[in-house]
Specification:
single chain, 254 residues, alpha/beta, 2-enoyl-CoA Hydratase, Chain A, domain 1, 2 domains, six-stranded mixed beta sheet, three-stranded mixed beta sheet, 52% helix, 15% strand, Enoyl-CoA_hydra/iso, Enoyl-CoA hydratase/isomerase family protein
Length: 254
């Protein structure tokens, strides 16, 4: 049986690849449970400093597998399945590991939430990104309602969830859903280059920076400033920061 997710760790980089290409990497029960397990492992390992998330085949992720939903036969089962997938999303979002996303091809429905679980997304010139929930009488899930408006603003979020509009790769960047658009054949390589740049630099500092930004929405200004002060102090105390700041100071003298 083909594994629903491909997972490996190489030189500090955890590769997570959705592997249902025949269904555009749409989630069924098997993929959902594998996703929850793999993401939890990836962000808990001491040998992982960055994650690269991608999809096999012609698309990144088409959200939930509608055929599998119909076979479930009940809203309760669908709610339970969404909860399993949400555990994986929370593993990535709440971790101190930065996540790069290679979102080639189509990203729709819950796939949009999977994309937003990453911290730096690369899309292709031919990519299409959208919601499409209402087309099937469904509502946003897999963190779309929690993360979309933060990324693009409330009015644009409503435009996506209330219409069948699909954004091009360039529009996804313009709207703030992705960081870069590159030729379709270069999406995977560019996303990996970004992830490896974190590993080649101050990996722990990138993770702390991610947490500061991700958690800011849950804090007041004064609390956030206190957290910033604690974080930079903790970062400065690490051997990594001591080496880099000392080297920077020495260069500044020249």
């Amino acid at each position: 049986m083909t594994e629903p997710i491909l997972f490996s760790v190489d030189g500090g980089l955890a590769r997570i690849t959705l592997n249902r290409p025949e269904r555009l990497n749409a989630f069924d029960e098997t993929l959902a449970h594998a996703w929850a397990e793999v993401t939890a492992e990836a962000v808990s390992r001491d040998d992982v400093g960055a994650v690269l998330l991608s999809g096999a085949g012609p698309a990144f992720c088409a959200g939930g597998d509608v055929r599998a939903m119909v076979e479930m036969g009940s809203g309760e089962a669908l709610t339970e399945l969404a909860g399993v997938i949400n555990r994986g999303i929370l593993s990535l979002v709440q971790s101190r590991v930065p996540v790069a996303v290679a979102a080639h091809g189509t990203t729709v429905g819950g796939g949009l939430g999977i994309l937003l679980a990453g911290d730096y997304a690369v899309v292709g010139e031919g990519s299409r990104v959208g919601s499409l929930y209402a087309n099937m009488g469904l509502t946003p899930d897999l963190s779309v309602s929690a993360q979309l408006a933060r990324a693009v603003g409330e009015r644009r979020a409503l435009q996506l969830v209330l219409t069948p509009r699909l954004l091009s790769g360039a529009e996804a960047v313009e709207w703030g859903l992705a960081a870069e658009v590159v030729p379709d054949a270069e999406v995977a390589a560019r996303a990996e280059a970004v992830a490896r740049s974190w590993l080649d630099g101050a990996a722990s500092a990138y993770g702390r920076a991610k947490r500061l930004v991700r958690d800011a929405a849950h804090r007041g200004m004064a609390e956030q400033l206190d957290e910033e002060a604690r974080a930079i102090g903790a970062a400065y105390a690490t051997p990594e920061a001591q080496r880099l700041t000392t080297a920077f100071a020495a260069r500044a003298k020249d």
